[in-house]
Amino acid sequence: LNSAHGTAFLRKWGEGxxxxxxxxxxxxxxxxxxxxxxxxxxxxxxxxxxxxxxxxDIELIIEKSPPNIVRMxxxxxxxxxxxxxxxxxxxxxxxSSILHRYHDPKSKSAEERMVLVSKFADEWLxxxxxxxxxxxxxxxxxxxxxxxxxxxxxxxSKLAVELPVLRTVDVGKKIR
Length: 176
What we know:
The strands form 2 sheets. The protein has a two-stranded parallel sheet with strand order 1-2. It starts with 6 loop residues before the first strand and ends in a 14-residue tail after the last helix. The chain is mainly alpha-helical. It has helices at 37-55, 72-78, 91-102, 110-138, 145-150, 152-162, and strands at residues 7-9, 60-62, 85-88, 141-144.
């Protein structure tokens, strides 16, 4: 929550999916999973109301649940004035990060590591195809994780075209 800029995440770490019962079950990446969109809208708007009571006016809500990449049509349906941004990471860095964050590669044989990395690469490709679909369909602002790390001011400037509240972001400011 950043009340100075009127910006808030729906939930800690930004993943509003965890606020809605049933959204985070094992099938959360299934594009055919039935979603009660009225419930999603009601729960998220209630959360915004609660956050507004704590900090005052909120100009920007950020929702970044990765599995929602497969249901952007539904989200656009209940939040038609929303803005989307596509953000992806180099596949090699992504697979390496997952391997080292969630698995102990030193305790795995070369074959076990190859099986894991192959699975991670398939998952990256699945997500990337969805990202590509939305970029092509809606011409949304997009950039890579590497671009954001290298030149954050350029990425924030790109975003500020559609989200003027971001014009005040100071990418050089140090935060805890």
